[in-house]
Amino acid sequence: MTARSIAFGERTSLAFRLHQAIALLDRFPPSILQLMFRIAIAAVFWSSGLTKIASWAATIALFRDEYMVPLLPPEIAAVMSATFELSCSVLIVVGLATRLATQPLLGMTFVIEVFVYTEYWTQHLMWASVLLFLLTKGPGVFSLDHYVGRLFRTKGLAR
């Protein structure tokens, strides 16, 4: 056997092993990722919502003096923000009306990026990516949406 054929055999073996490793990774269940994404993004917004309701006067001052969201008075913006952060986070974690619940949080992320903290674009891009993934792919099988959909299909109420 020549040195060239041994080297070729090693490359083929390495390529085969790499292919096997990629094939194994391809079998990773997407629903586990969807569950992880739901928990991760909900934790971000839940924490923010809890901070807002912990000191309402400070929250109103923050919206008035720092955030300065256009078109909305600080009191209304603060109420909307805390309401969406807390309620949508719960819905996303349990996977109920997930696609609907991602939309206000995507809107908030957009407003935060464009009008408030433009320098944190990488963090906002990460939030938006997770929310867009959930919006487009859904919450996965570990969700109430999945079970409600299955129930509707068995009752003949949905396809």
Describe what this molecule looks like in 3D:
With 159 residues, this protein is mostly helical. The protein has seven helices and no strands. It is flat. The mean pLDDT is 92.
Give the structure's gist in a few sentences.
The protein has 159 residues and is mainly α. The chain is built from seven helices and no strands.
**N-to-C CA distance:** 62 Å
Described by the principal axes of the CA atoms, the overall outline is flat
- Give the biggest sheet: none
Number of discrete helical segments: 7
Poorly predicted spans: none
Order of helices and strands: HHHHHHH
Rounded to an integer in angstroms, the radius of gyration calculated over CA atoms is 23 Å
Any chance you could write out the topology, listing elements then pairs?
Elements: H1 3-26, H2 30-54, H3 56-67, H4 74-94, H5 98-116, H6 121-137, H7 144-154
Helix pairs in contact: 2-4, 2-6, 3-4, 4-5, 5-6
Properties at a glance:
159 residues; mainly alpha
